[in-house]
Design goal:
It is a single chain. Helices cover about 40% and strands about 15% of the residues. It is of the alpha/beta class. It folds into 3 domains: about 1-295, 3-Layer(aba) Sandwich (Rossmann fold); about 305-380; about 415-490, Winged helix-like DNA-binding domain superfamily/Winged helix DNA-binding domain (Arc Repressor Mutant, subunit A, Orthogonal Bundle). The strands form 3 sheets. A 9-stranded mixed β-sheet has the order 5-6-4-7-8-3-9-10-11, with helices on both faces. A two-stranded antiparallel sheet has the order 1-2. Strand 5 (about 75), helix 2 and strand 6 form a beta-alpha-beta unit. The radius of gyration is 26 Å and the shape is globular. The protein starts with a strand and ends in an 8-residue tail after the last helix.
Length: about 500
């Protein structure tokens, strides 16, 4: 059993639990092509859920000719709703979808961004906890729910839920398709978890760099060959994509997705008079099945010792999260004050950036305070007392006095560390993007230097010296610049001799 998405490419049945990423510029066909995959799954009775922020996926319910029935999928919210989408009922909707095993579209197009993120966060968390059967989730405009730079606690919590779902959903037989027109602003830690990339026409250099990060994790192909591949992305036609799945079964193919069998609700159609008269497939049977489960919530039982203990554990976990966030705020303040006091921050612009970062934590502080106030009355009292439990959260900042001894290294381009220093000083190493040893070897090649298996060890040294920071994408190390070359030169940390 396979999913035939084009004349020359079929995906295996096992892809139901893969993580896909459909990446393209606006109008290149990312929603159209991902809908083809959704059609294939629905035809083979694989339950799916589409989280739709655009209000177009209801078209799965209508045939391509707009006259005949489409595929059985229940629409929550939006202009073509079978059932309302109450942002406060997202967990209950998730539970009922699992129990009835129906396919659904959650149309968020009439909700604000704040309410949309609330739905996504709570729905994905509940679905992850409840689901055990194979199910695939399509997340339209994923960058809105998993941004590279979340602002405030609301965005951060939604990002955390998406991250958990993408990373661990496979353990509960959940697959996911991420769809975005801005690869650059989609969180890179989440993008690199993709099993299969479907890249349609992409033009923006920053979006190509985001794709490059995923590619470098999957292949050690010749950099010139990859550069030609990146360049080819701008020439793809609408509906044409590179589909890349590096693991078994290995897929690396340029293909044109087959035409949709259901209706593609374009922006132009939504403005036409016919948009209000089109008939969707009758799914009353599924709606009644869902409503019977959704509307029959049992009265909660009196808490037992077991449920009380579980509630205590949940509250303790939540409190730990609050304390960690509070610690981050205090750490940032301490770092900023220490840097200013020690003279490490010398540029007015950098100082202003730090002050802005501190101010941006105000919503997080308010969130923490609100969470603590909510937690205090919920904690159970001791069994031998009727008085409420008191929680006191305190934080102290020790005064740390430190000194620094520096030793001078004289390096040349004949030495591995010298080569990296030369690339760093000349500004050839990316300043704001994560890079790998593959990036360094590609730069070596431009200087006619050979690859060196010790590159990772050398980059680790630069990390200990404070020039770079180190992270991991899966098991593969990656690095990012902490100190810009001009700042290192101004502080006398690097200089050219002669």
């Amino acid at each position: 059993m396979t999913f035939k998405i084009s004349d020359n490419l079929s995906l295996p049945r096992s892809c139901v639990t893969w993580v896909f990423a459909f990446l393209a510029k606006r109008g290149a066909g990312k929603t159209y092509c991902s809908s083809v995959l959704a059609e294939e799954m629905l035809k083979q009775k694989v339950p799916i859920v589409v989280i739709d922020g655009m209000g177009t996926w209801w078209g799965l319910r209508v045939s391509k000719d707009e006259e005949n029935p489409g595929l059985p999928i229940v629409v929550f919210g939006g202009e073509h709703a079978d059932l309302p989408l109450n942002p406060d009922k997202a967990p209950q909707i998730a539970r009922a979808i699992v129990e009835t095993n129906i396919s659904a579209v959650l149309d968020l197009s009439n909700l604000s961004k704040t309410k949309s993120r609330k739905v996504v966060q709570e729905f994905l968390d509940e679905l992850y906890q409840r689901n055990r059967a194979e199910r695939h989730i399509f997340l339209e405009e994923t960058d809105m729910f998993a941004p590279q730079k979340p602002i405030g606690p609301e965005m951060a919590m939604c990002l955390s839920s998406v991250d958990n779902f993408v990373r661990r959903g496979g353990n509960h037989n959940l697959g996911c398709t991420m769809i975005t027109q801005r690869s650059a602003v989609l969180n890179k830690d989440i993008l690199t978890q993709s099993d299969c990339l479907a890249v349609l026409r992409t033009l923006a250099p920053q979006d190509k760099k985001a794709i490059q990060l995923w590619v470098e994790e999957q292949t050690d192909d010749d950099p010139d060959k990859l550069a030609a591949w990146y360049d080819s992305l701008k020439n793809l036609e609408n509906g044409e994509a590179w589909v890349w799945h590096p693991e078994n079964p290995a897929i690396y193919q340029r293909t044109t997705f087959r035409p949709r069998e259901t209706f593609h609700a374009t922006r132009q159609f939504l403005l036409s008079p016919k948009a209000s008269t089109i008939k969707l497939m009758d799914v009353r049977e599924f709606v009644e099945k869902f409503s019977s489960v959704f509307g029959s919530e049992k009265k909660p039982k009196e808490p037992t010792g077991e449920t009380t203990s579980r509630r205590e554990a949940e509250l303790a976990e939540k409190l730990a999260l609050v304390e960690r966030q509070l610690g981050k705020e205090m750490d940032l303040r301490a770092q900023a004050e220490d840097a200013y006091r020690k003279g490490m921050v010398e540029k007015d612009q950098t100082i202003a950036t730090l002050e802005t970062a501190i101010k941006s934590l105000a919503p997080l502080r308010d969130f923490i305070r609100a969470e603590i106030q909510e937690l205090i009355p919920q904690l159970p009292a001791p069994s031998n007392s009727t008085s409420p439990t008191t929680i006191t959260v305190t934080g102290t900042q020790p005064k740390i006095i430190w000194s620094e001894e520096r030793h001078e290294l004289k390096l040349t381009d004949k030495d591995l560390r010298g080569k990296i220093t030369l690339l760093y000083a000349k500004g050839e190493i990316p300043e704001k993007e994560w890079f790998t040893t593959g990036t360094i070897h590609a730069l070596f090649k431009k200087h006619a230097w050979g690859q060196d298996p010790r590159a990772s060890q050398a980059l680790d040294e630069f990390t200990t010296w404070g020039f770079f920071e180190k992270g991991f994408a899966g098991a593969r190390p990656q690095y990012r610049m902490l100190l810009a070359p001009f700042a290192a030169k101004e502080r006398g940390l690097i200089s050219k001799e002669g």
